Amino acid sequence: MESVMKGFIVTGTDTDVGKTVFAAGLAQALRAAYWKPVQAGLEDETDSQKVARLAPDAEVLPEAFRFRTPCSPHHAALVDGTEVQDSYLHLPASDRPLVVEGAGGLMVPWRQDLLGADVFQRWDLPVIVCARTTLGTINHTLLTLNAMTTYDLELAGIVLIGDEEPVAEKAIADFGGGPIIGRLPFLDPLDAQTLAEAFAQNIKLDLLDG
Ligand SMILES: Nc1ncnc2c1ncn2[C@@H]1O[C@H](COP(=O)(O)OP(=O)(O)O)[C@@H](O)[C@H]1O
Ligand SMILES: [Mg+2]
Predict the structure, then answer these.
(1) Which of 19, 21, 36 to mutate to test the pocket of ligand 1 (most atoms within 8 A of CB)?
(2) Which among 6, 19, 36, 204 is annotated as catalytic?
(3) Given 3.20.20.450, 3.50.50.60, 3.40.50.1480, 3.40.50.300, which CATH number is that of 14-207?
(4) Domain residue spans in the chain?
(5) Of the four listed, 39, 68, 118, 191, which is most buried by Cβ atoms within 10 Å?
């Protein structure tokens, strides 16, 4: 890790893989500032609300964009009659390390002419990739890591989320080209305390590159 840690972008192979839960664990462990630049979907608990609940010692910064519909940001913005503007896509200033959570995965459109990966490229932060352990994850993870190379994004590490799956883990380790920093199991109950304990037990932040 850098001596002065600027923070990390947390992305994943897909939506619903557990990025927000992992980001909450990371933000709590680092006493970081969490930032969700684009929130699509306001009816259920938002990602920022979830992080505030699961990471009591993190600072939750306001989102740059909030759209009502839970779908790809480019379309969610359209439904609300607006679009993502570059002038708001700057990393917020904070005296804490930043934990930035994107929307879905790297190749999700934030605007008709802009993918998540394009935005991440502008931000000089190493990226943590969250991946499921279930069937299909080897392909999804390696595709994501491949896209990171294409977009010249710096890989900090890979996190697995779910039940133990040694075959997938080994394949991702063998082909992935970056450290697997641990596996966060499914927690029941999931709350600030169980997350902090599981995070401390299972996630090795000292393995992070970048
Ligand atoms: N480690 C975990 N233990 C228990 N539930 C989890 C865990 N990770 C994710 N979940 C649950 O799975 C769902 C998707 O997780 P979330 O972190 O919101 O995914 P993403 O941010 O990738 O869309 C949520 O209901 C969340 O509470
Ligand atoms: Mg999320």
Answers:
(1) 21
(2) 36
(3) 3.40.50.300
(4) 14-207
(5) 39
